[in-house]
Design goal:
The complex is a heterodimer of chains A (288) and B (175). Chain A has eight helices and twelve strands. By secondary structure, chain A is of the alpha/beta class. In chain A, the strands form four sheets. Chain A has a four-stranded mixed sheet. The longest helix of chain A is centred in the N-terminal third of the chain and has 20 residues, at 50-69. The radius of gyration of chain A is 20 Å and the shape is globular. Chain B is α/β, with parallel strands linked by helices. Chain B has a single domain (2-164), classed as Fe-S hydro-lyase, tartrate dehydratase beta-type, catalytic domain (fumarase). Helix content of chain B is 22%, strand content 27%. Chain B contains five helices and seven strands. Chain B has a five-stranded mixed barrel. Classes of the chains: A alpha/beta (288), B alpha/beta (175). The interface between A and B is large, with 39 and 36 residues.
Chain lengths: 288, 175
């Protein structure tokens, strides 16, 4: 369709954005990601520590119950991060996209009876009552689709995230050590088995973004770059050697996945960020 | 699996050893960051507490609201260490048991020993599962705090692990 000389301009109304965000927010909070459930099941099957095995079973039961009864997997339904990739051939109609996202989250948290955990100001701390605003990241990409990913992030694990501006000559060993130190400091407190989203490179804020976005990746998918896939495995091996285990009971279930995302960076820098996720790693995505 | 009931008597507490798995039935009071901050201020000022804490169990939890036909929403434990600095005061006011997740500070361990109390951990991140163990829920204090208010929960067979016992033995001692 040609209109006003613009080729293939696809319109997406904010109503569709809002409804999609609403659906994804409810889904993310009640239906545990299949790759995460599979990883927990895998730990359960292989765990020989009786107490740890019992706790892993509780998580599997919890996931089934949450899905069946549309309950929040965890009472901390988090602060929501939303990633939107808008194709450059798309034109968003009907209003402001960020408002639409926030409306979708607000509706979901009301309909789903989820906890409202967002305060309006970090100092004044009055609850907004709506679990909004969400943190919205928008990118323009090729094509005519709109990709939306919703990640409610609980703050138990978010609070144990770390970021360091390493020296440019620090090397992989130091990066691995930084990841190990992060998990060691968290210990059992942030609900292992953990997933690590690791960002390397960029600027400080880009690096933090990479770490958060890395958590969207399915657990069984390695980074396509061989030298980074190797790093992911090395980090995973070293952090699992801490043998923290579910509830800090020991055993094999310390970390179920490590995803590293990288970006070009400055000759004087090596930013590294670890965005720690608990075992209730929640995200849901859809392409419009 | 040992079954215990509230109120936690000294005899019951004395029989609990770090690592024991128990099922708790009875009354617990939820309280987390903001409620603890307020309680500490009142205790420091020797003011009147909104609720008698003597003999009570405090559960570090900010529950999700109840859906239709339900008593409570998901209600798992929050990270206990954030309540560490308030705990000596709360134990002074008579709290005998605490339920949360994760490690406590050395100061808290000392206070637990001194006050002959006990710290339990509940399954972490299994809020839906734990909500089924709650038979009744009503707000008791600080209602303006919403999910951070003090709620009185009636629980049945609430699964716990003794994390720090009356003698100060700590399952996380090696961390």
């Amino acid at each position: 369709m040609i209109e006003d000389g613009i080729m293939g301009n696809r319109q997406v109304d904010i109503t569709e954005i809002r409804n999609t965000v609403k659906d994804l927010s409810i889904e993310a909070n009640t239906v545990l990601r299949s790759d995460v459930l599979e990883a927990i099941q895998g730990f359960y099957d292989r765990e020989s520590n009786a107490s740890a095995k019992n706790m892993l079973k509780v998580l599997i039961t919890n996931a089934a119950l949450a899905r069946e009864k549309q309950l929040a997997l965890c009472q901390d339904t988090g602060m929501v991060a939303v990633f939107i990739d808008i194709g450059k051939d798309v034109s968003i109609t009907g209003g402001n996209i960020t408002d639409a996202v926030n409306d979708g989250v607000k509706e979901a948290y009301s309909k789903g009876h989820f906890r409202k955990s967002v305060v309006n100001d970090p100092i004044l701390r009055d609850n907004t009552g709506t679990n909004t605003p969400a943190v919205v990241h928008i990118d323009i990409v090729d094509g005519d689709k709109v990709g939306i990913s919703v990640m409610p992030k609980g703050f138990g694990a978010e609070n144990k995230g770390t970021l360091a501006m390493l020296e440019p000559t620090a090397g992989c060993e130091r990066i691995i050590d930084f990841c190990v130190e992060t998990v060691k400091a968290a210990g059992p407190d942030a609900c292992p088995p953990y997933v690590l989203g690791v960002g390397i490179g960029g600027t400080m804020e880009k690096c933090a973004m990479l770490a958060k976005k890395a958590l969207l990746r399915p657990l069984d998918q390695a980074n396509p770059q061989p030298h980074i896939a190797k790093l992911e495995n090395e980090i995973k091996e070293k952090v699992n050697a801490l043998k923290i285990g579910i509830m800090g009971l020991g055993g094999i279930s310390t970390v179920m996945g490590v995803a590293v995302e990288t970006a070009p960076t400055h000759i004087a820098g090596l930013p590294v960020a670890v965005n720690l996720s608990c075992h209730a790693l929640r995200s849901a995505s859809r392409i419009l | 699996m040992k079954r215990i009931n509230t109120p936690l008597t000294e005899k019951v507490i004395a029989a609990l050893k770090a690592g024991d798995e128990v099922l708790l039935s009875g009354i617990v009071l939820t309280a987390r960051d903001q409620a603890h901050l307020r309680l500490m201020e009142i205790i420091k000022d020797r003011g009147e507490l909104p609720i008698d804490l003597k003999g009570q169990i405090v559960y570090y939890c900010g529950p999700a609201p109840a859906g239709p036909g339900r008593v409570i929403g998901s209600c798992g434990p929050t990270t206990s260490s954030r309540m560490d600095r308030f705990t000596p005061y709360v134990l002074e006011a008579g709290v005998k048991g605490m339920i949360g997740k994760g490690r406590r500070s050395f100061e808290v361990r000392k206070s637990i020993k001194r006050r002959k109390a006990v710290y339990f951990v509940a399954p972490a991140g299994a809020g839906a599962y734990l909500s089924e163990k709650v038979k009744a829920c009503r707000v008791r204090a600080f209602e303006d705090l919403g999910p951070e208010a003090i709620y009185e929960l009636e629980v049945e067979d609430f699964p716990l692990i003794v994390a720090i016992d009356m003698k100060g033995n700590d399952i996380y001692g090696e961390f």
